[in-house]
C-alpha cells in the first residue's frame, strides 16, 4: 500500500494498482465504503470496444508505481499501466497514468489521469471514462448538487428486488420497502440528478456522526466531452460520487470517440479536486455546502494549477486566450446588428457547425458574452481551433469561417464577429423560444404513484419519472391540437412528443393566412432531443402528396426516459411550397410515426414558419 498523509487527510492506495482504498479525515478512519471490495471504492474505469465489437468494461489497474514529486509541501504519485502490443486485439490499447496530489495544509486532494495512444495501437472506440468514489453506506445519506437539489437518499439495499420494484426504465426503481420508511413510494433513478457541465461544478455527500462533507469540484470543464451543455451524472444511491469526463449520456453513439489504426492521441483528464470539510455542530451542516461553493470559486481562480508535475498539463504561462465581440444579424428583427448577449462562445477541435456537441477527442474552452456581446476565453491550450457559439433567442449554431490560432502567453484579438442565423423571410408564426431546451413548454405533474419528492413544486419538475405516459393521460382519445395565436405553449404544448397509448401520434398546428405569397415558405424546426423517432411533417393533408419532410430513426439521446429537457440539438430547414397553403385556415401535421415504443419521442425547441423573402433589405452596420 501507498499511504499519503498531510496531517489533515490520509490516503491509502494499492501498490501498484493505484486503487484508492481509504480516505481518513475528520475523525473517521475511512470515508470509503467498507462493505465494498478494496478494488471498487475509489477507482478510474472505462467503457470501450474494438470497431464493430461488443462493448467492454474495464477497471483501470496500474502495473507501475512511482513518486513524481515530493517537495515544496506537495507530493504527487503516479500509477501507470502500459499497453502490451503482444496483447493486440484483447487488451485496452491505451497507456494510462493515474495521478494523486496531496498538498500541505489542504483539506482534500487532487486526482487526474493521462490517457495516451501508444505507437502502432489498433483502432478502438472510447465510450466512457470517469473516476468513482463509493462512500460509507452507514454514514453518508444526504447529497447536495445545487442550492435546491439536496436530499436524504435511499440506502443501496433499497434498490434490491426485495425492497423495490424495477420500472420500465432499468435504472429506475419504485421504493416499496425502504430502510427509511419516509422514502416509501418514491422513485429512485441516478439520471434525476444529472447536471449540465455549465451548471455543475461541485457535488457531494454529507455524513452523520461525525458530520463530514465529501465534495467533487471541477475547476474546469476543458477535458470533458460535449461542451458546456453536455449532461453528466453527479451522485447516485450507493452512496456514489462521480467525476465524469467522457460519456454518451443524453447524446448517444454520435459522441463516441472513434480512433483509427495507429492514430496518435493524448489527453489529460483533470485534475479535479476532492474537498473535505466538517463541523462538530449539526446545526452548521448547511454551512458546509456554502463553504464548498466558495471552495469551488477558489479552485476556478487557481486554474490552471501551478503544482501539477506533468509536462502535458500546461500552466497559465504556457496557455493563451482569445477575446472578441459577437453580434447577430437578423434583418427581420432589427436593421442594426444585435449584440449577442448571454451567448456561449467556444474553441473546439470540431470544424463543422454544431459539431462541438459531439467532439470528444480534444479539449474545449468556452466563455459567455456580456450584455454587449463581448467575451474572453481564458487559459486555452495553444493550437488551432474552430470558433463556435450559440445565442439564446436565435436558432442554429455559429461557426466562424476562419480558424483561430492560440499561442502561449498571448491574447488573440478576434474583433467583431457576426452570426447570421438561417432565415429566408419574415416570420409568419412561431412556437417556443430558441434556447435548445423545452423549458418553455408544458411539463405535467408527475403521476402520484411515481413521485420524487425533491422535484415537487420544483422548476425542474421534468426530472420526475414517467412523464412520457402523462401525455396519454392528458390526451386519452385525441392528439394535441395547437392553434397559433390562441393557445399558450406554456400551457398547451406538451414538452415531449411521444406515443399515445403506445401508438403513433400526430400533433396538429392550426394557423390562418390572410394571403399566400407565391414561392417557397420555410419551416424552421429546431429539436432539443430525439430518441428513435420517425418524424413526418405534412401540410394540410396527411397523404403522401403533402409530406414535406421525413426522417427515420432519429436520435439515441434517451432524454425522455432520463428525465431531461435537452439532448443533442438539431435544426431542420424544410421547404414548403406555397401551393400547399391556402388563404384562411391551414394545418401543419407533426407525426411521431413510430409506435410500440414508450420511450421513443422528440423534444421540440422552437418552430417557425417564414414567408418567402420580399425585396432585399439593406445590410446593417456595426457603427
TrEMBL record:
Q: What is its EC number?
A: 4.2.2.23
**Does Lyase show up as a keyword for this record?**
yes
Q: Which residues form a coiled coil?
A: none
Please, which domain of life does this record's source organism belong to? Eukaryota
Q: Which residue spans traverse the membrane?
A: none
Q: Which organism is it from?
A: Macleaya cordata
In which compartments does the protein localize?
Answer: Secreted
Q: Name one GO cellular component term.
A: extracellular region
Could you tell me which residue ranges the Rhamnogalacturonan lyase domain spans? 341-414, 427-609
Write out the catalysed reaction.
Endotype eliminative cleavage of L-alpha-rhamnopyranosyl-(1->4)-alpha-D-galactopyranosyluronic acid bonds of rhamnogalacturonan I domains in ramified hairy regions of pectin leaving L-rhamnopyranose at the reducing end and 4-deoxy-4,5-unsaturated D-galactopyranosyluronic acid at the non-reducing end
Q: Into which family does the record put it?
A: Belongs to the polysaccharide lyase 4 family.
Q: What's the protein name? A: rhamnogalacturonan endolyase
GO MF annotation: an example: carbohydrate binding
Annotated SUPFAM superfamilies? Galactose mutarotase-like (SSF74650), Galactose-binding domain-like (SSF49785), Starch-binding domain-like (SSF49452)
Amino acid at each position: 500500500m501507498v499511504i499519503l498523509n498531510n496531517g489533515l487527510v490520509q490516503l491509502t492506495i494499492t501498490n501498484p494498482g493505484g486503487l484508492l482504498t481509504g480516505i481518513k479525515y475528520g475523525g473517521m478512519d475511512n470515508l470509503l465504503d467498507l462493505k465494498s471490495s478494496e478494488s471498487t471504492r475509489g477507482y478510474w474505469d472505462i467503457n470501450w470496444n474494438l470497431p464493430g465489437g461488443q462493448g467492454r468494461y474495464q477497471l483501470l489497474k496500474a502495473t507501475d508505481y512511482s513518486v513524481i514529486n515530493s517537495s515544496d509541501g506537495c507530493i504527487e504519485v503516479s500509477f501507470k499501466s502500459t499497453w502490451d502490443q503482444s496483447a493486440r486485439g484483447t487488451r485496452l490499447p491505451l497507456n494510462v497514468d493515474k495521478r494523486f496530489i496531496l498538498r500541505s495544509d489542504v483539506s482534500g486532494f487532487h486526482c487526474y489521469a493521462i490517457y495516451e495512444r501508444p505507437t502502432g495501437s489498433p483502432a478502438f472506440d472510447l465510450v466512457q471514462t470517469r473516476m468513482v468514489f463509493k462512500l460509507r453506506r452507514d454514514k453518508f445519506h444526504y447529497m447536495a448538487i445545487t442550492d435546491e437539489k439536496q436530499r436524504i437518499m435511499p440506502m443501496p439495499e433499497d434498490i434490491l428486488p426485495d425492497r423495490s420494484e424495477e420500472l420500465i426504465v432499468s435504472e429506475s426503481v419504485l421504493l416499496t420497502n425502504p430502510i427509511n420508511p419516509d422514502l416509501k413510494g418514491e422513485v429512485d433513478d441516478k439520471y434525476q440528478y444529472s447536471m449540465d457541465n455549465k451548471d455543475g461544478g461541485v457535488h457531494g455527500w454529507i455524513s452523520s456522526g461525525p458530520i463530514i462533507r465529501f465534495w467533487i469540484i471541477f475547476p474546469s470543464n476543458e477535458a470533458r466531452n460535449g461542451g458546456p451543455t453536455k449532461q453528466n451524472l453527479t451522485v447516485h444511491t450507493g452512496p456514489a460520487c462521480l467525476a465524469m469526463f467522457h460519456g454518451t449520456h443524453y447524446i448517444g453513439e454520435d459522441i463516441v470517440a472513434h480512433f483509427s489504426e495507429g492514430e496518435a492521441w493524448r489527453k489529460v483528464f483533470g485534475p479535479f479536486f476532492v474537498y473535505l470539510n466538517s463541523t462538530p455542530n449539526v446545526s452548521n451542516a448547511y454551512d458546509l455546502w456554502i463553504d464548498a461553493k466558495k471552495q469551488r470559486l477558489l479552485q476556478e481562480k487557481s486554474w490552471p494549477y501551478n503544482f501539477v508535475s506533468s509536462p502535458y498539463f500546461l500552466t497559465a504561462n504556457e496557455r493563451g486566450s482569445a477575446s472578441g465581440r459577437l453580434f447577430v444579424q437578423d434583418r427581420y428583427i432589427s436593421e442594426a446588428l444585435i449584440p449577442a448577449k448571454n451567448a456561449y462562445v467556444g474553441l473546439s477541435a470540431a470544424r463543422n457547425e454544431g459539431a462541438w456537441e459531439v467532439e470528444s477527442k480534444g479539449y474545449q474552452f468556452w466563455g459567455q458574452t456580456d450584455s454587449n456581446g463581448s467575451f474572453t476565453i481564458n487559459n486555452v491550450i495553444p493550437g488551432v481551433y474552430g470558433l463556435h457559439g450559440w445565442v439564446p433567442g436565435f436558432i442554429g449554431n455559429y461557426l466562424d469561417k476562419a480558424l483561430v490560432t492560440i499561442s502561449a502567453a498571448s491574447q488573440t484579438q478576434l474583433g467583431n464577429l457576426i452570426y447570421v442565423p438561417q432565415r429566408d423571410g419574415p416570420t409568419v408564426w412561431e412556437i417556443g423560444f430558441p434556447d435548445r431546451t423545452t423549458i418553455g413548454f408544458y411539463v405535467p405533474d408527475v403521476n402520484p404513484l411515481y413521485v420524487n419528492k425533491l422535484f415537487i413544486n420544483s422548476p425542474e419538475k421534468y426530472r420526475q419519472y414517467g412523464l412520457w405516459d402523462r401525455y396519454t393521460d392528458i390526451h386519452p382519445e385525441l392528439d394535441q391540437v395547437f392553434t397559433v395565436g390562441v393557445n399558450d405553449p406554456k400551457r398547451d404544448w406538451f414538452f415531449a412528443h411521444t406515443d399515445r397509448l403506445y401508438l403513433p401520434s400526430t400533433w396538429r398546428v392550426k394557423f390562418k393566412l390572410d394571403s399566400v405569397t407565391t414561392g417557397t415558405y420555410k419551416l424552421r424546426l429546431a429539436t432539443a432531443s430525439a430518441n428513435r423517432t420517425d418524424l413526418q411533417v405534412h401540410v394540410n393533408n396527411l397523404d403522401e402528396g403533402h409530406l414535406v419532410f421525413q426522417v427515420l430513426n432519429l436520435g439515441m439521446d434517451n432524454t425522455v426516459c432520463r428525465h431531461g429537457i435537452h439532448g443533442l440539438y438539431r435544426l431542420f430547414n424544410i421547404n414548403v411550397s406555397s401551393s400547399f397553403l391556402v388563404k384562411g385556415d391551414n394545418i401543419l401535421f407533426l407525426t411521431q410515426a413510430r409506435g410500440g415504443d414508450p420511450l421513443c419521442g422528440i423534444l421540440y425547441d422552437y418552430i417557425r414558419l417564414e414567408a418567402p423573402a420580399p425585396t432585399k433589405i439593406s445590410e446593417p452596420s456595426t457603427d
